[in-house]
Each structure stands twice: as structure tokens, then as C-alpha cells.
């Protein structure tokens, strides 16, 4: 679970679920 990676790399999941980045 690398939150820093998610923030640095906007995943397409964020578009579908804005809360996805928070969970993952």
C-alpha cells in the first residue's frame, strides 16, 4: 500500500472512485 505512489501517479481508479485513492 504505497499512498505516495498513488498521489504521485494518478490512477484511472481515481476517476471512477475519488475515495479509491484514500482506501488504497
UniProtKB/TrEMBL annotation:
Domain of life: Eukaryota
Identification of the protein by name: Uncharacterized protein
Source organism: Bracon brevicornis
Amino acid at each position: 500500500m504505497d499512498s505516495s505512489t498513488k498521489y504521485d501517479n494518478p490512477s484511472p481508479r481515481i476517476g471512477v472512485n475519488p475515495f479509491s485513492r484514500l482506501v488504497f
